[in-house]
Structures are given as C-alpha cells and as structure tokens.
Amino acid sequence: MAFIELDHVTRTYKKGDVEVTPLRDVSLSVESGEFFVLLGPSGSGKTTLLNLLANIDAPDAGRVSVAGTDLATLYGASSARWRAAHVGYVFQQANLVPVLTAYENVEIPLWLFPMTKEERHRRVSLALEAVGLLDRSDHLPKQLSGGQEQRVAIARAIVADPPLLVADEPTGNLDHESAEGIMVLLKRMNAELGKTIVMVTHDPRAAGFGTRRMRLDKGALIAEPTVGVAS
Amino acid sequence: MRLAFLTRKNLGRRPVRTWVTILGVASAMLLLILVGSLSAGLDRAMSGSEAARTLIVYRQNRYCPQTSNLPEWYADRIAKMDGVASALPVKVFLSNCRASLDVVAFQGAPAAALLETRNFDVISGDADAFRTRRNSALIGKAFADRRHLAVGDRFRFGTMNFEIAGVFTSSEPVEEGVVVTHLDFLQRSSPGGKPGVVTQIEVKVRNAADAERVAREIDDTFRSAEAPTDTRPKVAFLEGATRDLREILRFANWLAAACFVVMLVLVGNTVVMSVQERTRELGVLRTVGFEGRHLATLVLGEAWTIAGIGGLLGLAATWTVIRLTHLTIGSEGVIVEFVTSPELAAKGIAVALLAGTLAALVPALRASRVPVVAALRGT
Questions:
Q1: Cross-chain Cβ contact B291/A81 below 8 Å
Q2: What is the DSSP annotation of A93-127?
Q3: Model confidence at B199, in pLDDT bands (50, 70, 90)?
Q4: Please, which residues have CB within 8 angstroms of residue B72's CB and are 6 or more apart in sequence?
Q5: Could you give the CA distance from residue B207 to residue B217 in angstroms, rounded to a whole number?
C-alpha cells in the first residue's frame, strides 16, 4: 500500500451560487519518501488536493488514505491529533503568529504533545538549526525577511517530526534567491530526513526539485515528463 | 499546552484596545461595588443587638429631626411606665435633613444616662472627661475616621464648638457615625434648639415582647397632649428614616445591572474584533493540530483575563475611594457607611468573570467551529 492513496476522489464546493468541482474522480498514489510536485493553473484544485491530504477538508466521494489511515475514519479531536502527528503544512504565506518570536512560532505544534520543556527546547533548536535560523530565535516575524519567515514556517512544519510535508506554493511570495533557498531546504528535508513531500507550485524551477511531477487540469491528473532533479 | 502564554501574547497585540477595555470594565466594576457597598452599609445600619427592645418616640407626623419637638419631661413620664428599663431624651441636630453625602449628625443627651444606656466602648480618650466638661463630645469611630479627628481636637460646626473627649465604637453600627454631646449644650447652642425640648426619646423595654404594648401605651398617654407622639420599634424607625436611601438604592441597582451590561458589551466587542482579525491564524492553528476546544479556551481565556484584570482594578479603585474618603451617606439623621467585605469583592469578581464568559461564549463557539479551509482563505 502506498504512503498516500487517493481512490476515485471527487470534491465539489459552492463558490457563490456556482458549484465548482476542482477534483473529479481523481486517483493518485505517492510512495513514502517521494517529493511529489503538483502543477496546474489557478483554480485547478491543487490546494484542494493538499487540504484533503492534510485532513482539513474531506472528499464528497472516494477515499483518501495517508500513512495507512483512512482519513474518513477521523473526525473532531481524533482528526486534529492525527494532523498534529502526521502532517506539516507549509503555506504560500508563512502565516506566523506575529506576536510570537521565531522560537515560539516553531514551538507551537509541540504544545500539543506531552513533553518536557527541555525536550521542546531540544526539538525547536534542532528545527531552527535545520533551517539555518537558530541565531534568529528571538526575532519577531516583522524582524525577519520573507525568506526567513518561510524558513521559520518550514521549521514549524517539521518540528513535531511528521512523516508528511505538504507545501502550497511555498515560494510564491519570494524573490528568486529566497525561493531557491527554500527549495534547497525542502529538498534536504526530503533527502536527509526522509520526509514525504507533496508540493503545489506554478514555478517550473521549483517543480524541478521534485522526484515526480503531475499536472492537475479540469479536475483530472496528468503525468508530467520527469526532468532532471535539481539539487 | 501553553494557552495562557498565547492568551497573554494575544492581548498584547493591540495594547491600547485591551487597556481601554480593561479600564472600562474597571469603571463599571467601581460603580457596581459602590452600589453593593451601600446596600451592605444599609443592612449593617439596620443591625444591632439592642434593636429588638428599643423604641423611638417621635413627634407625630414629623419626619425630619429638625421638626420633631417633644417636651423633655416626656422621658420622665415614660420611664415610670410598666416594663420600661430606661427612657433617654435625645436632641438631634443635622447639617442636612435629606439624603446627602457627608451629613454631620449631633445627638445631645444627659451624659450619665447616655453612657449608661448606650453600649459605647470608648476606645480612646476618657468617658469621665466627657461627663464633666459641658462642651465636650464623644465621636463615633466612623465619624473620627471620616473627619480625621482624634481626642483633644476641637471641632467647630457653625456656632458650636466642641472639644473631643473620646472616640467610641458601639454595638449599634449606626451610632458610630454621629457626634454625641451634652443635651443642654446642644439645646442652647444649636440653631433652632430650645431648653426643655428634645427631638426623640429612646426607650428600652425590659422584655422585647413588651415593646408593642409599651409603644401603644406611650402614644395613648400623649394622644391629647400638646405634642402627640408616634412610637415605633427602632428597626421600623430606621427603615422610615432611610426611605430615601432605599429609593436611591433601588435606582442604583438598575445602574448596577447596566454596569453588568456595559462589561458584557465592552469585553464582547473586544473579543469579537480580536477573533475576526485572527480568522486565518485560527485556521493555521487548526491545521497545526489544535482542537476546537483549544481555540474556544483561548478566546474564553482572553475574555476572562480582560474581565478579571478590569474587575480587580475596579475593586482596588473602590476600596481606595471608600478607605480614603470614608464615604458615608445620611438620611434623617441615620448615617450609612459604604461597607466593603471579602464577600462583596468575591461577588464582584464573580460578576466580572460571568460577564466575560457570557461575552466570549459566541465568539469562542465560532472559533472552535471555524471551517479550516475557509479560515485559511481568510473568508
């Protein structure tokens, strides 16, 4: 069984008075340790697919399974607990809490786990070190650059050591240099920490970092030719 | 879970808004507790170990001490009635007869009988000095505190000039707000005073069960005299004298209810705005793994913190005002203190927290049920 399985998934929602079906009978398998890149035009359902994987949205039809768990069996508190343990979400914007320091932002997911202060400190320090921002621990988000904020968001996503990272256009708001740095970082998370990554992007350069690419168009998935993996 | 830490940080996002809300709650709490302390003061004024066997003889159809004039000799006649333990003629002089803040009430009575009849405990000064000096006075502790007076001080009021011989406490709390002096001195020196004329006669019966019969006998005795009497138990007399205050308190209770609503609106407004501004952030927290109950607790925590700090500041302000000013209100010679107590403080804090809870209930529920995807979109 693959690490991620989408089995004939359909998702429809209302946008005003109009019914939109971004995902129509989509099936997909992603193996553990893959760096899977999803391409596609705006409104094609890429983010919807990520939300289904992160279990913050549910399909109208079909089955979504991640790490051996059928997500339809989770609801309420069990869904939240599963998410905390299994998924790290990197948004297009860093979405940091503005009144918390970089350290405190990274620490947030660990508040959900029974853990000593020392253990929390060890993990937060490791995560900040992994993204190269240990020396910015006590900085507030407004004291960081866009790229640094996104690095803090990645540290927040990995600090609880989830097996799956989902990234929704993580370089969408960054300049070329910062975007490159973020992609190198994600690639390292995949290669060195063994994280399975599902990333949505418009950026062909960012897409080049993936081990497999697919395009989502009109509710259906189409395989993209594999290109050389950037490193 | 470090929700308290996050609550504190969230309240620091907009410090001006947070502090304006806290000060609003504190102001509402100040009014609320002032009303509560006036109510407690009235209850205290009505209490007293001697109230059940004490009668007050007043001039019939007179309601203000300035207009109640009874011949002093009535006291001797009443003292001889069956079942009467003592009859004390008292001249009352007030700075203001109506309900008013800072009323000064003087009571003049024969010194020896006064000290014998009333349960005074002279806590400083000398009761003998009071007995022997005609223009001396004993002052109640509440009055001494309010006016910052001590033994040996001179106290002048209009043309009257007293030397303070002692400060007393009493088993009748209502007496601690007055100045007591010699009857003949007050009759001669107070405006409108006449020798041989008193305001009221305080009658103590031997047995509380006889009070009603004695009251009837007194009124029957003087029914056709030049000054007919109206004799009532002391509690009924106090209730009549504080009628104006009770009316004020009835209105003040509505003010207190309005204060509760003000707290509710202030805290509710701040919490609702705070939650609306952070919709996306709540979505992020849900994505990270926070449960609905965590977000609800976060919102409730913010409301409790604002209401709690506001409540405590309001209590501190009320306590300071009452302690520093020794605030009292008087009506028809009855002086009522504003009384604070740990119970009143606890009630105040409970009311503030209740207002906080009610104000945050809907926003907390909304935060706990925020649709994650819509929240992340910021819609």
A1: yes
A2: S----TTS-HHHHHHGGGGGS---HHHHHHHHHHH
A3: very high
A4: B89, B183, B196, B197, B198
A5: 15
A141-150 per-position pLDDT tens digit: 999 998 899 9
B15 CB contacts (<8 Å, ≥6 apart)?
A: none
Q: Which residue of A has its CA nearest to B372?
A: A56
Contact criterion met (CB below 8 Å) for A196 and A22: no
Distance CA A104, CA B323 (A): 44
* B175 vs B269, higher pLDDT: B269
Residue for token digits 């988000």?
A: A141
What value of ipTM does the predicted structure carry?
0.91
Beta bridge partners of B101: B329
| Beta bridge partners of residue A19, listed in sequence order | A14
Is residue B35 within 8 A of residue B254, CB to CB? The reply is no
Q: Which residues 72-101 in chain A show a CB within 8 A of chain B? A: 76-77, 80-81, 83-85, 87, 89, 91, 95, 97-100
Low-confidence ranges of chain A (pLDDT < 50): 228-231
Residue B350 CB coordination number (10 Å): 11
Task: Report H helices in chain B.
Answer: 3-11, 15-46, 74-79, 111-117, 127-132, 141-147, 183-189, 211-221, 234-241, 243-277, 279-288, 292-325, 342-368, 372-377
Query: Residue A84: its pLDDT value, please?
Result: 93
- pLDDT greater at residue B30 or residue B1: B30
Residues 6+ apart with CB under 8 A from B202: B54, B55, B56, B57, B87, B88, B90, B117, B234
Burial class (CB in 10 A: 0-12, 13-18, 19+), B23: middle
pLDDT at position B318 over 90: yes
Chain segment B70-115, per-residue pLDDT in tens:
999 999 999 999 999 999 999 998 877 666 677 788 999 999 899 8
Q: What is the pTM of this model?
A: 0.81
Q: Report whether B37 contacts B322 (CB < 8 A).
A: yes
What gap in Å lies between CA B370 and CA B171, rounded to an integer?
61
* Whether the predicted pLDDT of B18 surpasses 90: yes
Indicate the SS3 state at residue B42.
helix
- For chains A and B, CB pairs below 8 A equal 61
Q: Report how far residue B248's alpha carbon sits from residue B242's, in angstroms, rounded to the nearest whole number.
A: 10
CB contact under 8 Å between A83 and B292, yes or no, is no
Least CB–CB distance from A100: residue in B9, B290, B291: B9
- Return the DSSP state at B280: H
Contact A89 B287 (CB under 8 A): yes
Extract the tokens encoding B52: 């059940």
Residues near A214 by Cβ (< 8 Å), separated by ≥ 6?
A28, A36, A37, A38, A39, A221, A222, A223, A224
pLDDT in tens, A128-185: 988 888 999 999 999 999 889 998 999 999 899 899 999 998 888 778 888 888 888 8
Specify the 3-state DSSP secondary structure of B231: strand
